Amino acid sequence: MLTLSGITKSYGERTLFAAAALQVNRGDRIGLVGPNGAGKSTLFSLILGSQPADDGRVSIERDAAIGYLPQESAPVGEETVLEIALAITEDFVRLHRIIKAREQKHSVEAQHPEDVHDDVHDRYNELNGYIVEAKAKQILAGLGFRDSDLDRPARTLSGGWVMRAHLARLLTQEPDLLMLDEPTNHLDLESLLWFQGYLKGYPGAILVISHDREFLDALVTAIVEIRHQKLVRYTGSFTKFLQQREAADAQHLAAYKTQQKEIAHLQAFVDRFKAKASKATQAQSKLRQIERMDKLEAPEADDKKVGFRFPQPPRSGQKVIWLHQVHFAFGENRIYRGIDFEVQRGERIVLVGPNGAGKSTLLKLLADKLTPDQGKRELGHNVSVGYYSQYRIEMLEPGRTVLEEALDTEAKVTEQVVRTLLGSFLFSGDSVFKRVEVLSGGEKSRLALVKLLLDPPNLLLMDEPTTHLDMSSIDALVAAMTQFEGTLVFISHDVHFIKTLANKVIHTAGGQLTPYLGDYAFYLHKTHSESARAALTAGGGAAEKPQGKSGRPGRQEANKARLNLQKQKRLVQALETEIDALETRQVAITGELELPETWSDGARGRELGRELQTNTERLAELSSKWETEASRLELD
How far is CA 84 from the centre of its chain? Predict the structure, then answer.
């Protein structure tokens, strides 16, 4: 359906593609990946014809329809949400508007029904208008729109919701080739899961740029990587692509080294004997053998990872922040009633649960961006709080450039270090001189993230920090958070990000907070989840707690449950303290046993050996007990 052959594209001295080729067939599900600046969006432009190739050819099957969703800034005018979704042709929207207007006029003026049923309806029927309209409404609902949103002017919506409406238009249209540039950026988890499932049954081919590893693993059957100016195709999911590329790189490196050794051996013979008459013929033969070789290219290193030691915040007290008996509601919508929540130093907590359950609300309560209706929020000793939300960019000065804004930090870092970090978050070259006021929402969010990393507090509260980042930028953020010595509480739908960082999971649903004292893999195991992505929103709606006759939770039962929970927490913490002490002593014993002087008379060595055996047995016993008691704590 789509063929790219011999494609070359350069900008000045920089070459993005050199004799690159790609074949897309009907039914293909292809993920397009590559580092920032490799040319992913440029390749889309070449396919769409909005940019010409310097050389090569783009061939598209006759009558094949192509649909394209840009990463940002889809156009919007006076049309409603439903009209955008129905805008598969201008005629379609025009007929729909006429019918809608006449139906409204009939309703108001009570005209005769036959005034509405005319050739407009006939033409709309010929275009399967009512079937398409029902399909569009179904898709809009899947993408998170309510019935009351459908007749809203699209200009009254945020940019993210406008992008959803345009995504609905493409899915309604069903082009033969669907080209999507970071389509998950503007979707919440439930909409993303619906979208992911819908695409699995999509009748056409899909070519998608995405930073979301889980999304690619669930959808694609092939990966095309832009690497060293070529388009390299791999069969399978994104995870399989990583494995195949690593194996291919290792194989290429081994073959290259073997060939280089052979060339060096032949060349040594030539250099040694070319001047000797008796060996000159053999030397010339060896030289021709070298010249005839199909020489392998030297392996090229991929773009370097950001190598920056992020500044570390001052050490806080052990108890970082806690909420005590907090009640919170938005009007009549009660989110939390009497919750207790505590965060310890060094914890990296991910908040999971269904939409509307209160994850962002909890984060804002911790950040002091919302005030509890009852109860209190307290900070521990020497705690400084930083709150990062993709919607909070008030910290930025519109008149400054990106570089000036990033340099406005108390951290002792050089301009070169700052520019390196900016480059890792998609600000490269002259883009660092753009003024903040002209940046897109995603660019402002990334700049706010850079500022936070340059001078981090010791308690970081982050809401969807990977939105608008490509894979290399996410890797840079993971590197920063891995180095981070403070405490982290975050919300994310990036499973890779969660798996890499989280050491504790808090599930929120129905106004209840359920702790899982382990990483995300532990949470998946305990909840018997089939899908790592679906588990992020598992747990049903935010239902109220069971109520007594008075309409309030039974006070005695609540007090008893709270006391039991506190007792269980103390037991688990005591076990953790003893386990830490045993592990520390075990390291010390092992180190002493490795010293030659320990065995000088044998007695000390035997004594340490007995202590090590006792220590190991006790550690195994306590670890088993901790797992049992921690599991009970999760169920309380």
Answer: 28
Q: φ, ψ for residue 508 (rounded to 5)?
A: -115, 130
Asked if residue 20 lies in contact with residue 227, where contact means CB atoms within 8 angstroms, the answer is no
**pLDDT single digits (tens) 322-344:** 999 999 998 888 999 999 999 99
The tokens for 438 are 């002209």
Structure tokens at 252: 């290429």
pLDDT greater than 50 at residue 541? no
If you average pLDDT over each of 114-118, 313-317, 561-565, which comes out highest?
A: 313-317
What is the rounded average pLDDT of the residues 81-98? 79
- Choose among 555, 549, 552, 527: nearest CA to 540: 527
The average pLDDT across 306-328 equals 87
599-632: pLDDT as tens digits: 676 677 778 777 877 877 787 778 767 766 765 6
Decide: 180 and 168 in contact? Cβ < 8 Å: no
The Cα angle at residue 581 between residues 607 and 594, in degrees rounded to 5: 40
Cβ pair 451, 409 in contact under 8 A: yes
Q: Is the pTM of the predicted complex or chain greater than 0.85?
A: no
Q: How much is the CA Rg of the chain, to the nearest whole Å?
A: 31
b/e for 348-371, b at 16 or more Cβ within 10 A?
A: bbbbbbbeebbbbbbbbbbbeebe
Give the residue-averaged pLDDT of 200-225. Answer: 94
Q: What is the pLDDT of residue 453?
A: 87
476 touches 306 (CB < 8 A): yes
Quote the CA–CA distance of 235 and 54 in Å, as a whole number. Answer: 29
Phi, psi (rounded to 5 degrees) for 419: -70, -35
State the amino acid at position 492 in one-letter form.
Answer: S
Residue-wise burial string across 531-568, b where 16 or more C-beta atoms lie within 10 A, e elsewhere: ebbebbbbbeebeeeeeeeeeebeeeebeeeeeeeeeb
> Given a cut of 80, is residue 597 above it in pLDDT?
no
How far, in Å, CA of 236 to CA of 615, rounded?
A: 48
Provide long-range contacts, Cβ within 8 A and 24+ apart, for 265-268: 266/290
Q: Name which of 213, 238, 215 is nearest 225 in CA terms.
A: 238
How large is the average pLDDT for residues 44-71?
93
pLDDT in tens, 158-184: 778 899 999 999 999 999 999 999 998
Q: Are 486 and 508 in contact (CB under 8 A)?
A: no
Residues 6+ apart with CB under 8 A from 443: 426, 427, 434, 468
CA 547 to chain centre: 39
Task: Read off the tokens for 380.
Answer: 């521990």
pLDDT digits (tens, 9 = 90+) for 393-421: 667 888 999 999 999 888 778 888 899 88
Secondary structure (DSSP) of 136-199 = HHHHHHHTT--GGGTTSBGGGS-HHHHHHHHHHHHHHH--SEEEEESGGGG--HHHHHHHHHHH
The residue written with tokens 């036959």 in the block is: 114
489 vs 466: CA distance, rounded Å: 14
Place of tokens 């500022």: 451
For 491, phi and psi rounded to 5 degrees?
-120, 135
Give whole-number Cα distances, 554 to 317, 329, 332, 551, 635, in Å: 35, 20, 21, 9, 19
Which amino acid is residue 440, in one-letter code? S
Structure tokens at 385: 């709080």
What token pair was written down for 434? 């753009």
Residue with tokens 């070298």: 290
Amino acid at 241: F
* Alpha-carbon gap, residue 45 to 43, rounded angstroms: 5
CA-closest candidate to residue 482, choices 455, 453, 461: 453
Look at the block and give the residue holding tokens 């897309």.
24
